[in-house]
Amino acid sequence: MPPPSPPGGARRGVSRLLSLTEIVPGLALVVLVLFVGLVHSRFFSSAAIDSNVRAASFVAIIAYGMVFLLAMGEIDLSVGGTYGVCFFICARLGNNGDVNMYLAALIAIAAGVGLGLANGLLVNLFRAPVIIVTLGTYSLYAGLVFVISQGQTVGQALPLTSSFFTKVGGNWAGLPVAGWVAIVLAVVLTIVLMRSRLGGMIRAIGSNRSAATFSGIPAGRLRVYALMLTGGLAGLSGVLTLAYAEGGDSSIGTDFELQVIAAAIIGGTAVTGGSGSVPGGLIGALIVATINSGLVFFNVNPLWSDVVTGVVILIAVGTAALLAHRRAERLARFDA
Question: Domains (ranges, CATH) in the chain?
Fold first, then answer.
């Protein structure tokens, strides 16, 4: 005779426990925003909110791709370089109106996909973890930023009257356009990761790669797809950054991968693979942006930004581990 199902209250308790993946960082974001805002009321000004949402959107868009990779048990360290390369490809092509800005943006995003494809092919060729291969391409792509930019700033010759800058780089319905892009992508990619067959295979690879491969799941091919997605999203983020900033220097993208990885992990995606939260990536990006902005409001030296972000990552990883342990204990108790 099969064991009785847990009562309705117990089932709801399990459901609540499982949803802590996004609830905990969401509550942390609310507390953080209230803390900074109550101490410094200017944090709630429209200008500050607009700045934080825009900064978070640039990070979140790439973090979505990182969530897919983390769900497979992988990490891409080259996203900062990819972001910078695509930023400068778009800027260089659009200089002096040589190429229509929208066409330049599409070419830059395609370049991001291509850099992600290069990562994937190298990973499969060397049969090495993504983090090892992208440790090398991180330096390679970052070097390409300096080659393309020639160590100089870009923006003086861009057609700033183009709607690419005035519309795409501006606001719509009260939010930065980049924010709307981040929201739409969050919905679409959540469906892909959690509801589609592709997403199920990605999570299966992260849960048990050997079993997934044995069952016929093409782990190598899916890893390439995930890296291409991440590269394309990095390119999109770079293009949106250019549309707003209207120029930049060769330092663009430096250490950006730390913020992206932090956003994904803080948002509740486990580094051990098997699960991931795209909305959590957006929440994590908002937390990172709030921390960076809060340091400015509290007149803390910006050099402490990475230190604070690292501490938050450690807290997020530790909390996730404790919650996973509690969840396993609770489910084991129900199965007994």
Answer: 15-335 (1.10.3470)
Q: How many CB atoms lie within 10 A of CB 216?
A: 7
Q: Is the pTM of this model over 0.70?
A: yes
User: DSSP letter at 171?
Assistant: E
Q: What distances in angstroms separate CA 195 from CA 198, 301, 321, 324, 334, one per listed residue? A: 9, 44, 25, 22, 26
| Maximum separation of any 2 CA atoms in the chain, in Å | 77
CB-CB neighbours of 120 under 10 Å? 24
Q: For 201-244, how does the pLDDT look when each residue is reduced to its tens digit (9 = 90+)?
A: 999 999 998 898 888 999 999 999 999 999 999 999 999 999 99
Those residues whose C-beta lies under 8 Å from the C-beta of residue 165, and which sit 6 or more positions away, are 101, 158, 159, 243, 246
CB distance 252 to 87 below 8 Å: yes
- Quick check: helix, strand or coil at residue 248? strand
Rounded distance between C-alpha atoms, residue 88 and residue 144, angstroms: 10
Total residues belonging to the chain: 336
Q: Is the pLDDT of residue 17 over 70?
A: no
- Using alpha carbons, select from 192, 72, 176, 74 the residue that is nearest to residue 130: 74
How does residue 16 score in pLDDT terms, banded at 50, 70 and 90? Answer: very low
Q: How far apart are CA 304 and CA 298, in angstroms?
A: 12
Per-residue burial over 80-119, b if 16 or more Cβ lie within 10 Å, else e, is bbbbbbbbbbbbbbbbeeeeebeebbebbbebbbbbbbbb
Question: 257 and 138 in contact (C-beta within 8 Å)?
Answer: yes
CB 59 within 8 A of CB 238: no
Query: How sure is the predictor about 335, in pLDDT bands with cuts at 50, 70 and 90?
Result: low
Within 10 Å of residue 161's Cβ, how many Cβ atoms?
A: 9
- Look up residue 53 and give its two tokens: 């949402």
Separation CA 188–CA 206 (nearest Å): 21
Q: Apex CA 329: angle with CA 327 and CA 213, to 5°?
A: 70
Give the DSSP H/E element, type plus range, for residue 172. Answer: strand 171-172
Confidence check: pLDDT of 111 > 70: yes
